Amino acid sequence: MATEAPALSPYDRIGGREVLRRITDRFYDLMDTDPAYAELRAMHAPDLSPMREALAGFLSGWCGGPRGWFEANPGKCMMSMHKPFPITRQTATQWADCMSRAIADAAPEDTEVADAMAQVLGQMAKGMARD
Ligand code: HEM
């Protein structure tokens, strides 16, 4: 009987830690330098390096890879965690747009999983807006 190879996780398909780190770094570089994201940038602390670690760690576990961020933050929910921030449709759209550009610029080979990731993260970000 032929056995099917197990399906790869989104983490493996996107290119693992290296590509997720590339996406995260590009995301914060764009946020930091492109005036299109000025309002979003202003909501964050001056030093973005802790965010580079945190977002890369979150995305790793979220995509089915190593779960260090989730183990260090037991029970932390991304949607609830963002409730204290005054997120508007404008800043949520900036987040979604910046992430979609970062994913495209990181150029993962598997464009199907890359597009799906940009789509779902964009929907999550827009779901955080409260205006
Ligand atoms: C899918 C959407 C999003 C994801 C996956 C995400 C991810 C994260 C992560 C991992 C952290 C750090 C949490 C920690 O280490 O405790 C964080 C913090 C933060 N996020 Fe998001 N985020 C999203 C959407 C947004 C949106 C739409 C905004 C604003 C428009 C936003 C603004 C912030 C701010 C202001 C912080 C705190 C930053 C700081 O302390 O400097 N996030 N986010």
Automatic annotation (TrEMBL):
InterPro entries: Globin-like_sf, Globin/Proto, Globin_bac-like_CS, Hemoglobin_trunc. Keywords: Heme, Iron, Metal-binding, Transport. The keyword Metal-binding applies. SUPFAM superfamilies: Globin-like. PROSITE patterns: GLOBIN_FAM_2. The keyword Nuclease does not apply. It holds the Pfam family Bac_globin. One of its GO terms (molecular function) is oxygen binding. GO terms for biological process: oxygen transport. It comes from the Bacteria. Its cofactor is heme. This is Globin. It comes from Novosphingobium aromaticivorans (strain ATCC 700278 / DSM 12444 / CCUG 56034 / CIP 105152 / NBRC 16084 / F199).
